[in-house]
Amino acid sequence: MNEKIYLDNAATTKVDKEVVDEMNKFHSDKYGNASSVHSLGQEARDAMEKARGIIAKSINAKPEEIYFTSGGTEANNWAIKGAVWKTEKKHVITTKIDHDCVLNASKWLEKQGIKVTYLDVDKEGFVDLEHLKKEISEDTAIVSVIHGNNEVGVIQDLEKIGKICRDKGVYFHTDACQSYTKTDIDVKKQNLDLVTLNAHKIHGPKGVGALYIRSGVEIDIFMHGGGHERKMRSGTENIPGIVGFGKSVELADKKNIKKMSEMRDRMIKKIIDKIDNVKLNGPEGYNRLCNNINLSFNNIEGEAIAEYLDGYGIQVSTGSACSSHTLEASHVLKAMGLDDLCANSSIRISLSKFNNEEEIDKVLEVLSDVVIKLRKISPFK
Ligand SMILES: Cc1ncc(COP(=O)(O)O)c(C=O)c1O
To answer: 233 and 181 share a domain?
Structure first.
Protein backbone atom coordinates (compact mmCIF):
# COMPACT_ATOMS: atom_id res chain seq x y z
CA MET A 1 0.00 0.00 0.00
CA ASN A 2 1.74 3.19 -1.11
CA GLU A 3 -0.80 5.89 -0.38
CA LYS A 4 -1.12 6.79 3.27
CA ILE A 5 -4.57 6.59 4.81
CA TYR A 6 -4.78 9.33 7.40
CA LEU A 7 -7.30 8.60 10.13
CA ASP A 8 -5.94 10.75 12.95
CA ASN A 9 -7.89 13.92 12.28
CA ALA A 10 -8.66 14.48 15.95
CA ALA A 11 -4.91 15.01 16.43
CA THR A 12 -4.68 17.41 13.53
CA THR A 13 -5.93 17.83 9.98
CA LYS A 14 -4.51 18.44 6.56
CA VAL A 15 -4.63 22.15 5.79
CA ASP A 16 -6.97 22.93 2.91
CA LYS A 17 -5.21 24.10 -0.26
CA GLU A 18 -7.39 27.23 -0.37
CA VAL A 19 -6.38 28.00 3.22
CA VAL A 20 -2.68 27.67 2.38
CA ASP A 21 -3.08 29.91 -0.69
CA GLU A 22 -4.83 32.57 1.34
CA MET A 23 -2.24 32.39 4.13
CA ASN A 24 0.68 32.60 1.72
CA LYS A 25 -0.44 36.02 0.54
CA PHE A 26 0.00 37.24 4.10
CA HIS A 27 3.48 35.75 4.39
CA SER A 28 4.97 37.10 1.21
CA ASP A 29 3.07 40.17 -0.03
CA LYS A 30 0.71 41.48 2.61
CA TYR A 31 3.09 40.97 5.51
CA GLY A 32 2.25 44.11 7.49
CA ASN A 33 1.86 44.36 11.25
CA ALA A 34 -1.81 44.92 12.08
CA SER A 35 -0.82 47.67 14.54
CA SER A 36 0.98 49.76 11.88
CA VAL A 37 -0.84 52.82 10.63
CA HIS A 38 0.40 52.56 7.02
CA SER A 39 -1.54 50.82 4.31
CA LEU A 40 0.31 47.48 4.58
CA GLY A 41 -0.55 47.39 8.25
CA GLN A 42 -4.15 48.36 7.63
CA GLU A 43 -4.47 45.65 5.01
CA ALA A 44 -3.38 43.12 7.62
CA ARG A 45 -5.81 44.58 10.15
CA ASP A 46 -8.70 44.44 7.69
CA ALA A 47 -7.95 40.78 6.91
CA MET A 48 -7.83 39.98 10.63
CA GLU A 49 -11.14 41.73 11.26
CA LYS A 50 -12.71 39.85 8.36
CA ALA A 51 -11.61 36.54 9.92
CA ARG A 52 -12.90 37.68 13.33
CA GLY A 53 -16.27 38.42 11.77
CA ILE A 54 -16.48 34.99 10.10
CA ILE A 55 -15.61 33.18 13.34
CA ALA A 56 -18.00 35.31 15.43
CA LYS A 57 -20.88 34.68 13.03
CA SER A 58 -20.25 30.93 13.05
CA ILE A 59 -21.04 30.75 16.78
CA ASN A 60 -23.64 33.56 16.88
CA ALA A 61 -21.30 35.95 18.70
CA LYS A 62 -20.27 39.55 18.10
CA PRO A 63 -16.85 40.16 16.47
CA GLU A 64 -15.67 42.11 19.52
CA GLU A 65 -16.26 39.01 21.66
CA ILE A 66 -13.59 37.00 19.77
CA TYR A 67 -9.95 37.19 20.97
CA PHE A 68 -7.26 35.45 18.95
CA THR A 69 -4.79 33.21 20.77
CA SER A 70 -1.96 30.83 19.90
CA GLY A 71 -4.35 27.88 19.95
CA GLY A 72 -6.68 25.81 22.07
CA THR A 73 -4.22 25.26 24.90
CA GLU A 74 -3.73 28.98 25.48
CA ALA A 75 -7.44 29.74 25.23
CA ASN A 76 -8.31 27.03 27.76
CA ASN A 77 -5.60 28.18 30.18
CA TRP A 78 -6.70 31.80 29.79
CA ALA A 79 -10.39 31.09 30.35
CA ILE A 80 -9.90 29.12 33.54
CA LYS A 81 -6.99 30.94 35.14
CA GLY A 82 -8.32 34.31 33.94
CA ALA A 83 -11.69 33.69 35.60
CA VAL A 84 -10.07 32.63 38.86
CA TRP A 85 -7.63 35.55 38.96
CA LYS A 86 -10.41 38.08 38.53
CA THR A 87 -12.44 37.01 41.56
CA GLU A 88 -12.16 36.18 45.25
CA LYS A 89 -13.94 32.87 44.60
CA LYS A 90 -11.81 29.80 45.13
CA HIS A 91 -13.57 26.91 43.41
CA VAL A 92 -13.42 25.53 39.86
CA ILE A 93 -15.50 22.74 38.36
CA THR A 94 -14.40 20.69 35.37
CA THR A 95 -14.82 17.06 34.34
CA LYS A 96 -12.81 13.88 34.54
CA ILE A 97 -12.77 13.71 30.72
CA ASP A 98 -11.56 17.19 29.82
CA HIS A 99 -8.43 17.69 27.73
CA ASP A 100 -5.06 17.60 29.46
CA CYS A 101 -4.63 21.35 29.04
CA VAL A 102 -7.74 21.96 31.15
CA LEU A 103 -6.87 19.25 33.66
CA ASN A 104 -3.26 20.33 34.08
CA ALA A 105 -4.25 24.00 34.37
CA SER A 106 -6.72 22.91 37.06
CA LYS A 107 -4.10 20.86 38.89
CA TRP A 108 -1.78 23.88 38.82
CA LEU A 109 -4.56 26.00 40.31
CA GLU A 110 -5.00 23.42 43.07
CA LYS A 111 -1.39 24.07 44.06
CA GLN A 112 -2.28 27.77 44.36
CA GLY A 113 -5.01 26.94 46.89
CA ILE A 114 -7.99 26.63 44.53
CA LYS A 115 -10.42 23.76 45.13
CA VAL A 116 -11.20 21.85 41.93
CA THR A 117 -14.09 19.43 41.45
CA TYR A 118 -13.72 16.89 38.64
CA LEU A 119 -17.21 15.82 37.60
CA ASP A 120 -18.03 12.17 37.04
CA VAL A 121 -19.28 10.87 33.70
CA ASP A 122 -21.43 7.86 32.91
CA LYS A 123 -20.28 4.85 30.90
CA GLU A 124 -20.87 6.66 27.61
CA GLY A 125 -19.02 9.75 28.81
CA PHE A 126 -21.96 12.08 29.59
CA VAL A 127 -21.40 14.46 32.47
CA ASP A 128 -23.48 13.84 35.56
CA LEU A 129 -25.68 16.95 35.73
CA GLU A 130 -26.89 16.16 39.25
CA HIS A 131 -23.28 16.06 40.39
CA LEU A 132 -22.78 19.46 38.71
CA LYS A 133 -25.84 21.01 40.41
CA LYS A 134 -24.69 19.70 43.77
CA GLU A 135 -21.14 21.02 43.40
CA ILE A 136 -21.86 24.60 42.28
CA SER A 137 -21.60 26.94 45.26
CA GLU A 138 -21.25 30.63 46.07
CA ASP A 139 -17.50 30.05 45.88
CA THR A 140 -17.48 28.64 42.30
CA ALA A 141 -15.64 30.92 39.87
CA ILE A 142 -16.10 28.90 36.69
CA VAL A 143 -17.45 25.63 35.28
CA SER A 144 -15.46 24.25 32.34
CA VAL A 145 -16.83 21.29 30.38
CA ILE A 146 -15.41 19.93 27.15
CA HIS A 147 -17.98 20.00 24.31
CA GLY A 148 -16.94 17.17 21.95
CA ASN A 149 -14.49 14.82 23.60
CA ASN A 150 -11.23 14.31 21.71
CA GLU A 151 -10.91 10.61 22.59
CA VAL A 152 -14.40 9.11 22.55
CA GLY A 153 -16.37 11.78 20.69
CA VAL A 154 -19.15 12.21 23.25
CA ILE A 155 -20.92 15.55 22.79
CA GLN A 156 -22.21 17.19 25.97
CA ASP A 157 -25.52 19.00 26.14
CA LEU A 158 -24.18 22.55 26.41
CA GLU A 159 -27.61 24.11 26.57
CA LYS A 160 -28.57 22.18 29.70
CA ILE A 161 -25.20 22.70 31.41
CA GLY A 162 -25.21 26.37 30.41
CA LYS A 163 -28.70 26.84 31.85
CA ILE A 164 -27.67 25.33 35.18
CA CYS A 165 -24.63 27.65 35.35
CA ARG A 166 -26.55 30.75 34.20
CA ASP A 167 -29.31 30.12 36.79
CA LYS A 168 -26.68 29.86 39.49
CA GLY A 169 -24.74 32.90 38.23
CA VAL A 170 -21.54 31.00 37.48
CA TYR A 171 -19.41 31.46 34.36
CA PHE A 172 -19.59 28.56 31.90
CA HIS A 173 -16.65 27.77 29.62
CA THR A 174 -16.50 25.05 27.01
CA ASP A 175 -13.54 23.65 25.10
CA ALA A 176 -14.99 23.28 21.60
CA CYS A 177 -11.77 22.45 19.73
CA GLN A 178 -13.09 19.11 18.54
CA SER A 179 -16.71 20.02 17.99
CA TYR A 180 -16.26 23.34 16.16
CA THR A 181 -17.85 23.18 12.68
CA LYS A 182 -18.82 19.55 13.36
CA THR A 183 -21.88 20.31 15.44
CA ASP A 184 -23.76 23.53 16.17
CA ILE A 185 -22.36 26.05 18.60
CA ASP A 186 -24.63 28.97 19.43
CA VAL A 187 -23.33 31.01 22.33
CA LYS A 188 -26.72 32.56 23.04
CA LYS A 189 -28.90 29.47 22.78
CA GLN A 190 -26.38 27.40 24.74
CA ASN A 191 -25.81 30.00 27.49
CA LEU A 192 -22.07 30.13 26.90
CA ASP A 193 -19.81 32.69 28.56
CA LEU A 194 -16.43 31.49 27.27
CA VAL A 195 -15.62 29.20 24.34
CA THR A 196 -12.27 27.83 23.17
CA LEU A 197 -11.76 27.29 19.45
CA ASN A 198 -8.76 26.39 17.32
CA ALA A 199 -7.91 26.09 13.64
CA HIS A 200 -5.82 22.98 13.16
CA LYS A 201 -8.66 20.54 13.80
CA ILE A 202 -10.70 22.08 11.00
CA HIS A 203 -8.21 22.08 8.10
CA GLY A 204 -6.68 25.34 9.24
CA PRO A 205 -3.14 26.08 10.47
CA LYS A 206 -1.55 25.04 13.76
CA GLY A 207 -0.72 27.65 16.37
CA VAL A 208 -3.86 29.75 16.13
CA GLY A 209 -7.09 29.69 18.08
CA ALA A 210 -9.57 31.98 19.75
CA LEU A 211 -11.36 32.57 22.98
CA TYR A 212 -14.94 33.83 22.86
CA ILE A 213 -15.57 36.05 25.86
CA ARG A 214 -19.21 37.12 26.21
CA SER A 215 -19.58 40.91 26.60
CA GLY A 216 -19.73 41.65 30.30
CA VAL A 217 -17.82 38.54 31.38
CA GLU A 218 -14.78 39.56 33.39
CA ILE A 219 -11.60 37.52 33.20
CA ASP A 220 -8.06 38.62 33.86
CA ILE A 221 -5.37 39.20 31.24
CA PHE A 222 -3.20 36.17 30.52
CA MET A 223 -0.61 37.67 28.18
CA HIS A 224 0.69 41.13 29.16
CA GLY A 225 2.40 43.38 26.63
CA GLY A 226 1.63 46.03 24.09
CA GLY A 227 -2.14 45.89 24.45
CA HIS A 228 -3.22 43.96 21.37
CA GLU A 229 -6.67 42.36 21.10
CA ARG A 230 -8.41 45.24 22.85
CA LYS A 231 -5.79 45.18 25.64
CA MET A 232 -6.74 41.62 26.59
CA ARG A 233 -4.14 39.49 24.78
CA SER A 234 -0.87 41.07 23.82
CA GLY A 235 1.50 39.90 21.14
CA THR A 236 1.77 40.78 17.45
CA GLU A 237 -1.12 39.03 15.82
CA ASN A 238 -0.40 35.94 13.71
CA ILE A 239 -2.06 37.37 10.61
CA PRO A 240 -1.41 34.46 8.21
CA GLY A 241 -2.68 32.06 10.86
CA ILE A 242 -5.73 34.18 11.66
CA VAL A 243 -6.55 34.59 7.96
CA GLY A 244 -6.16 30.82 7.50
CA PHE A 245 -8.39 30.19 10.52
CA GLY A 246 -11.11 32.41 9.02
CA LYS A 247 -10.81 30.71 5.65
CA SER A 248 -11.08 27.23 7.18
CA VAL A 249 -14.28 28.26 8.94
CA GLU A 250 -15.62 29.75 5.72
CA LEU A 251 -14.93 26.45 3.93
CA ALA A 252 -16.63 24.30 6.57
CA ASP A 253 -19.69 22.80 4.96
CA LYS A 254 -22.53 21.01 6.75
CA LYS A 255 -22.58 18.47 3.93
CA ASN A 256 -19.29 17.14 5.28
CA ILE A 257 -20.86 16.45 8.69
CA LYS A 258 -23.36 14.16 6.98
CA LYS A 259 -20.65 12.51 4.89
CA MET A 260 -18.44 11.85 7.92
CA SER A 261 -21.33 10.62 10.12
CA GLU A 262 -22.35 8.10 7.47
CA MET A 263 -18.78 6.89 6.97
CA ARG A 264 -18.35 6.66 10.76
CA ASP A 265 -21.47 4.56 11.23
CA ARG A 266 -20.72 2.25 8.31
CA MET A 267 -17.19 1.73 9.54
CA ILE A 268 -18.28 0.97 13.12
CA LYS A 269 -20.84 -1.54 11.86
CA LYS A 270 -18.40 -3.23 9.48
CA ILE A 271 -15.70 -3.57 12.15
CA ILE A 272 -18.10 -4.94 14.76
CA ASP A 273 -19.61 -7.36 12.22
CA LYS A 274 -16.24 -8.59 11.00
CA ILE A 275 -14.14 -8.74 14.19
CA ASP A 276 -15.13 -10.58 17.38
CA ASN A 277 -15.03 -9.02 20.81
CA VAL A 278 -14.89 -5.37 19.85
CA LYS A 279 -16.42 -2.67 22.03
CA LEU A 280 -17.40 0.82 20.89
CA ASN A 281 -16.42 3.40 23.50
CA GLY A 282 -18.70 6.43 23.73
CA PRO A 283 -22.27 6.88 22.49
CA GLU A 284 -23.79 6.04 19.14
CA GLY A 285 -25.52 8.49 16.81
CA TYR A 286 -25.92 12.23 16.94
CA ASN A 287 -24.40 12.65 20.41
CA ARG A 288 -21.08 11.51 19.01
CA LEU A 289 -18.69 13.64 16.96
CA CYS A 290 -19.29 12.89 13.29
CA ASN A 291 -15.65 11.91 12.76
CA ASN A 292 -14.88 9.87 15.89
CA ILE A 293 -14.59 6.10 16.33
CA ASN A 294 -13.06 4.65 19.49
CA LEU A 295 -12.90 0.89 19.86
CA SER A 296 -11.48 -1.53 22.41
CA PHE A 297 -10.17 -4.86 21.11
CA ASN A 298 -10.19 -7.54 23.72
CA ASN A 299 -6.81 -8.76 24.97
CA ILE A 300 -4.50 -6.79 22.70
CA GLU A 301 -2.77 -3.47 23.07
CA GLY A 302 -4.07 -0.48 21.14
CA GLU A 303 -0.48 0.71 20.84
CA ALA A 304 0.45 -2.50 18.99
CA ILE A 305 -2.56 -2.21 16.66
CA ALA A 306 -1.66 1.38 15.82
CA GLU A 307 1.97 0.46 15.13
CA TYR A 308 1.03 -2.46 12.89
CA LEU A 309 -1.46 -0.32 10.98
CA ASP A 310 1.21 2.32 10.51
CA GLY A 311 3.32 -0.34 8.84
CA TYR A 312 0.53 -0.62 6.28
CA GLY A 313 0.36 3.14 5.82
CA ILE A 314 -2.74 3.56 7.98
CA GLN A 315 -2.53 6.23 10.64
CA VAL A 316 -4.72 6.01 13.72
CA SER A 317 -4.00 6.78 17.35
CA THR A 318 -4.46 5.43 20.82
CA GLY A 319 -6.17 7.92 23.12
CA SER A 320 -5.33 11.52 22.40
CA ALA A 321 -2.15 12.61 20.66
CA CYS A 322 -1.12 14.52 23.76
CA SER A 323 -1.63 11.70 26.26
CA SER A 324 0.31 9.34 24.03
CA HIS A 325 3.40 11.00 25.56
CA THR A 326 2.63 8.97 28.67
CA LEU A 327 2.15 5.25 28.97
CA GLU A 328 -0.77 5.61 31.36
CA ALA A 329 -4.21 4.30 30.36
CA SER A 330 -6.46 7.03 29.03
CA HIS A 331 -8.01 9.13 31.81
CA VAL A 332 -11.14 9.45 29.68
CA LEU A 333 -11.72 5.72 29.26
CA LYS A 334 -10.96 5.13 32.93
CA ALA A 335 -13.49 7.80 33.95
CA MET A 336 -16.05 5.94 31.81
CA GLY A 337 -15.43 2.82 33.89
CA LEU A 338 -13.10 0.81 31.65
CA ASP A 339 -10.43 -1.20 33.43
CA ASP A 340 -6.76 -0.65 32.49
CA LEU A 341 -6.64 -3.65 30.16
CA CYS A 342 -9.71 -2.59 28.21
CA ALA A 343 -8.60 1.06 28.13
CA ASN A 344 -5.18 0.06 26.84
CA SER A 345 -6.71 -2.05 24.10
CA SER A 346 -8.37 0.91 22.42
CA ILE A 347 -7.64 2.78 19.25
CA ARG A 348 -9.11 6.03 17.98
CA ILE A 349 -9.97 6.41 14.32
CA SER A 350 -10.84 9.98 13.39
CA LEU A 351 -12.12 10.84 9.93
CA SER A 352 -12.12 13.97 7.83
CA LYS A 353 -13.88 15.18 4.72
CA PHE A 354 -10.89 13.90 2.73
CA ASN A 355 -11.51 10.24 3.57
CA ASN A 356 -13.54 7.96 1.32
CA GLU A 357 -15.27 4.58 1.30
CA GLU A 358 -12.45 2.87 -0.56
CA GLU A 359 -10.04 3.78 2.24
CA ILE A 360 -12.47 2.56 4.86
CA ASP A 361 -12.71 -0.83 3.15
CA LYS A 362 -8.92 -1.12 2.97
CA VAL A 363 -8.63 -0.33 6.67
CA LEU A 364 -11.22 -2.94 7.54
CA GLU A 365 -9.32 -5.61 5.66
CA VAL A 366 -5.97 -4.79 7.23
CA LEU A 367 -7.39 -4.20 10.73
CA SER A 368 -9.06 -7.55 10.83
CA ASP A 369 -5.79 -9.34 9.85
CA VAL A 370 -3.81 -7.33 12.38
CA VAL A 371 -6.23 -8.13 15.21
CA ILE A 372 -6.15 -11.87 14.42
CA LYS A 373 -2.33 -11.82 14.35
CA LEU A 374 -2.01 -9.90 17.61
CA ARG A 375 -4.58 -11.99 19.44
CA LYS A 376 -2.65 -15.12 18.56
CA ILE A 377 0.45 -13.82 20.31
CA SER A 378 -1.33 -11.98 23.13
CA PRO A 379 -0.20 -12.85 26.66
CA PHE A 380 -3.57 -11.69 28.07
CA LYS A 381 -5.66 -14.76 27.33
C1 LIG B 1 -10.27 19.07 23.00
C2 LIG B 1 -8.98 19.77 22.78
N3 LIG B 1 -8.71 20.87 23.49
C4 LIG B 1 -7.56 21.54 23.33
C5 LIG B 1 -6.61 21.12 22.44
C6 LIG B 1 -5.33 21.89 22.32
O7 LIG B 1 -5.37 22.74 21.21
P8 LIG B 1 -4.02 23.31 20.54
O9 LIG B 1 -3.34 22.13 19.93
O10 LIG B 1 -4.53 24.28 19.51
O11 LIG B 1 -3.25 23.97 21.60
C12 LIG B 1 -6.86 19.98 21.68
C13 LIG B 1 -5.84 19.50 20.70
O14 LIG B 1 -5.18 18.50 20.90
C15 LIG B 1 -8.06 19.28 21.85
O16 LIG B 1 -8.34 18.17 21.18
So the answer is: yes
- Identify whether residues 190 and 326 lie together within a single domain: no
Ligand 1 pocket, Cβ-based, cut-off 6 angstroms: 71-73, 76, 99, 101, 146, 150, 175, 177-178, 198, 200, 209, 322
* Shared domain check, 147 and 43: yes
CB 13 within 8 Å of CB 201: yes
Range of the structural domain that residue 365 is part of: 5-13+253-377
Same domain, 62 and 198: yes
Q: From atom 2 of ligand 1, which residue's Cα is the shortest distance away?
A: 177
Query: From CA 68, how far away is CA 185, in angstroms rounded?
Result: 18
* Ligand 1 centroid distance, CA of 200 (Å): 9
Number of residues that make up the chain: 381
Question: Relative to the CA of 11, which ligand 1 atom is closest?
Answer: 14
Substitution site in 80, 101, 106, 179 for ligand 1 pocket (most atoms within 8 Å of beta carbon): 101
CATH number at residue 311: 3.90.1150.10
pTM: 0.97
Q: What is the pLDDT of residues 311-350, one digit of tens each?
A: 999 999 996 444 455 557 899 999 999 999 899 999 999 9
Q: Whose CA is nearest to atom 8 of ligand 1?
A: 72
pLDDT in tens, 230-274: 999 999 999 999 999 999 999 999 999 999 999 999 999 999 999
Q: How much distance in Å is there from the Cα of 177 to the middle of ligand 1? A: 6
The answer to whether residues 208 and 355 belong to one domain is no
Give the pairing of strands 91-95 and 5-6.
Answer: unpaired
Q: Considering its fold, how many domains does the chain have in total?
A: 2
Residue with CA nearest ligand 1 atom 14: 11
Tell me whether strands 91-95 and 115-119 are parallel, antiparallel or unpaired.
parallel
Dihedral, 157, 161, 162, 168 alpha carbons, nearest 10: 170
The residues that are catalytic are: 322
